[in-house]
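Quality-control log, excerpt.
Job 1 of 2 completed; input and output follow.
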Amino acid sequence: MTQGLTRGLTRVAHRSGAPVSTPAVPIGQVDAAAASARPTGLDELDRVLGGGLVPGAVVLLAGEPGVGKSTLLLEAGALVADSGPVLYITGEESAAQVRLRADRIGAISDQLYLAAETDLDAVIGHVDQVRPRLLIIDSVQTIAATDVDGVPGGVTQVREVAAALTAVAKERSLATILVGHVTKDGSVAGPRALEHLVDVVLHFDGDRHSQLRMVRAVKNRYGPTDEVGCFDLGEYGIIGLPDPSGLFMSQHHEPVPGTCVTVTLEGRRPLPAEVQALVGYSALEVPRRATSGLDGARVGMVIAVLQRRAGVKLGKQDVYAASVGGVRLTEPSVDLAVAVALASSAANLSVPAGVVAIGEVGLAGEVRRVSGMPQRLAEAERMGFRRAIVPAGPMDPAGPADPAGLAGSLQVVGVQDVRQALSAVLGTDL
């Protein structure tokens, strides 16, 4: 057996090299212009992609059914078609159905080619015939390779189809966008290898009851992964929102108890958002705790901190907490606004107009620092807020050493703990 292993190792050691496809050159002599991004015409999508689509790049766009993936890509394809042919392969709808949507949103172009195919070889045949600068596959789970076992959408089929389309994209410097399905928990459906094969993974999400849609990059070989694109999905298409601030706040003629505004960071973009809370006596033995758009676990933690550290009596109260405008607020910087809104509703005291609260709340009742505070405060000042309640002490290295250093038209108040924050906002000890 030892002799067999020795012979095997000898064969590996004497393996001859194959002819190279392209000679190796010094890295300084490689032409980087071929990998420069080309804008799609949708500024919010280009923001997330890092400037546009790179020739040869494979992008996976995942999202829930009905969120607007096909509408977004159809509009992007029509804009790209102004500078070259675009091939749109639909495997989920007929060509006539896609044409009706294109008529509705105005995505009609002589250079936008449409084909309804589910066979991988036929898709590659269309690519050979059209020679597009952009290929859109809607969706990768509907395309099947006839020489591979398994049903369309299965692990084996999806892996083979994605690998074949990636090889075509790299060989022909063809920018390719694959539409992918998501599972119940919101992750990309199919094998994990699918995300490793592609260059960019984008998530397209939004509340079905709201017109707001967001594109986030979770993987990007050509740009940042902390950018967010905002869109307004309506009956006549999808429109980029370069300034979505104000969408997540309600309009009150007079201050109302149980509301507080915070500034959340979506990627690099600061967005003011309003948190609302309603606290009332419960007739049930176990009071209700309901949330919408907020992390239920964090809201429960804030309730416990308010009861133990700030003396706010919520044990026998029903508590309802929600965000405004369908936005989902999950980052810890929202904690302080949730605490203020809950205390405001419990005490039936309104938060003064023009006040914003930003900070993470710890179990000891302390208010912790959060990242990006200079950007958050600058956005609050731009939106007309006059007073900001923030954690006391130094902020991140990008900002000044002390919150008071940012005071201009915005008065910045640093607080140590929740009790101090409630006193600063509501003007009384609860």
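Job 2 of 2 completed; input and output follow.
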Amino acid sequence: MVPICRDSGAVIAFGGRQMDADQGGPKYLNSPETPIYSKSRTLYGLNHTKAAVRKLNYAILVEGYFDFAQLVQAGVSPVVASCGTALTPHQAQLLRRFTSKVVLSFDPDAAGQNAAVRSLDSLLASGLAMRVATLPNAPLPPWMMFRYFFSA
């Protein structure tokens, strides 16, 4: 279970990952939509990284909580997550409040690449300058991802 917070730090929902695939249901599950929590209007981790995003004037956008956690653990601070979906116009506008540049780094699987393509319109419409980081299809440990990410 992970807390999902507003950019101010207030907890507004929770997300969880199913540990036993035999139980059926979704692999990841968030709290239901409420008047204070809307997945399409929330960027995971922004409450922790907004100072770095502002200071460096870019954000690395990843798909999920654990992608976010791996990069933060590897020392990459200007990162946020869209929580497993393509970036929405609301999320892009929220991100635009803190930076003018985004590096899109979704998973190299088909679902991640499709979500990346669907995110491009929202990024362009919000006026964010963007780059797309393509990672190799094999899983990388956090330290190697950090090295790969910034060597290209």
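Post-run check on job 2. DSSP finds five helices and seven strands in the chain.
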